Amino acid sequence: MNTPVITTGTDDFRTLRDQLWAAVSDRDEHLAAGVVFAALDGGMDAETALLDVIAPVQAKVGTEWAANRLTVAQEHAASAIAERVIAALAHHPSTRRDPGLGRITVACVDKEWHVLPARLLAEVLTLRGWRVDFLGAQVPTPHLIAHLHTSGAETVALSSSLPTRLPTAHAAITACQAVGVPVLVGGAAFGPDGRYARLLGANAWAPDARTAVRQLADGIPAPDLAIGRTQVDDLPHLADQEYTYVARSQGLLVREVLTQLEKRFPAMNAYTPQQREHTAEDIAHVVDHLAVGLYTDDDALLPTFLDWTAGILTARDVPAVSLLPVLDVLAAELQDFPRSVRLLDHARLALDATLASAGHTSGAPA
Is the distance from CB of 83 to CB of 120 less than 8 angstroms? Predict the structure, then answer.
């Protein structure tokens, strides 16, 4: 195993990140841990190692996957190494702290598998002296509430990276507050400015772990149990049932879009089973984001997802214009639902602009 070369100046973050990236890319767990441990032994504090070295390298893993420079398997392997390095770091002598502050529960919402942001927060809170119950990925809300009844947690920190988890996050937020526990939320799902955290009634939102720690130190007031709040109270537009219909009809909508695409583009009849599966998955993601756009009544949510998806498809040599007929078929199928039509029309215009700026004018599903 190569021995990492560590220096301790303020300009050494790039060197450390490059060394850790090289180890992660080579799937060398021992070298990756050696890079981090050498930094700790050289005087770097554990919080800095977590947030300024490990976290940016993991973000690069996601960027490289999106650019099609890492396979899904390589991305999973790199993420697994990051998890194990964080676990090892937690037992380094320099990280030992006596928990003198309150107790907090940190968890990902149900069906949220992107656990690293929550794990980083849990480790930083532990370093700062909190008693942390880290429940990990995809925690069903009933299990979370059962834990709160017995743990004595003063606050819950909920993490979600995918916007499609926002309805589940909303249910978790209101359930925690109903038993008197305030909720701090974080993660990409809640928007770069926390707009969805405010929309869903969270007690606090933090864009990163350091901000979250500061807010918790300042104290987050407990919810008023006299207010019997429900999800519909927060989002009165849900009364039109459009979200419920689209969410429950996802399978039917995906099948209808596939059928219509086959009629429009006969070349799809020659697709391999794997190509058809990938196409169905892409359509299902579009329907999911349309549903969450209806849940939040936010015109920007679906276009943001389509812009990201267009980049993913382009990196994989799949024509991004293949998204356009998907929107057209969905608009036709949902023509009697005004909010759905509004969101799809807005998304169509935004995607047209995105494709035009990239020089795409026409095409067919890949």
Answer: no
Q: 240: how many CB neighbours lie within 10 A of its CB?
A: 15
219 backbone dihedrals φ, ψ, rounded to 5°: 100, 130
279-282 long-range contacts (CB < 8 A, ≥24 apart) are: 279/365, 279/366, 280/254, 282/309, 282/326
The first and second tokens of residue 115, run together, are: 């656990």
Residue 158's SS3 state is strand
278's CB contacts (< 8 A; 6+ apart) are: none
Report the candidate in 176, 173, 182 with the shortest Cα–Cα distance to residue 102: 182
Sheet containing strand 183-186, edge to edge, reads 131-139, 103-109, 155-159, 183-186, 204-205
Whether residue 360 contacts residue 320, with contact meaning beta carbons closer than 8 Å, is answered with yes
What are the pLDDT digits (tens) for 162-186? 999 999 999 999 999 999 999 999 9
What was the pLDDT predicted at 226? Answer: 59
